[in-house]
């Protein structure tokens, strides 16, 4: 598992849509809980940065490259700081406290793209707004979850096939 992969997925999957309008999990107590689970404070400014990171990454994953602009702005004050230790130099992310957690999300996204290219994708159910990182060996995972979208879409495909083939059975 890539560092902060769970944080990345929690943030990407914080606006689920079950057929209707996306819900907002990066808000209120739910947002506070999510941020604190990953070492954040959950205050309003931090949640706002996380929402900017999420919306930008969702756009990029779906092919809308204009989103790099909002992410660049979000990261404008983030730098890497060198910590020299007896065994080498460690580079640590340094960003204003509001931006720190969102910057970790972007770092994790970047690491996933580097180490698992093409494996971060949107669920193939177009009515779903969840994302997955495909760790399967063939790299053919399509659904956020087999239990929900996978079965739902398979049932739909089966129903369509049955309709096309008429009532032969
Ligand atoms: Zn899904």
Automatic annotation (TrEMBL):
SUPFAM superfamilies: Jann2411-like. Residues 119-161 form the Zinc finger CGNR domain. It comes from the Bacteria. InterPro entries: ABATE, ABATE_dom_sf, Znf_CGNR. Pfam families: zf-CGNR. Coiled coil: none annotated. This is Zinc finger CGNR domain-containing protein. It comes from Rothia koreensis.
């Amino acid at each position: 598992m890539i560092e902060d992969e769970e944080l990345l997925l929690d943030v990407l999957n914080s606006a689920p849509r079950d057929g209707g309008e996306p819900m907002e999990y990066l808000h209120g107590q739910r947002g506070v809980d999510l941020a604190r689970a990953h070492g954040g404070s959950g205050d309003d400014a931090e949640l706002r940065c996380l929402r900017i990171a999420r919306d930008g990454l969702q756009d990029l994953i779906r092919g809308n490259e204009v989103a790099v602009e909002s992410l660049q702005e979000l990261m404008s004050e983030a730098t890497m700081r060198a910590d020299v230790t007896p065994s080498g130099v460690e580079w640590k992310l340094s960003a204003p406290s509001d931006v720190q957690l969102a910057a970790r999300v972007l770092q994790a996204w970047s690491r996933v793209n580097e180490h698992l290219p093409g494996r971060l994708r949107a669920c193939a159910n177009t009515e779903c707004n969840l994302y997955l990182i495909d760790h399967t060996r063939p790299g053919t995972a399509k659904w956020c979850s087999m239990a929900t979208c996978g079965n739902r879409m398979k049932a739909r495909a089966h129903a369509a096939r049955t309709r096309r083939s008429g009532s032969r059975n």
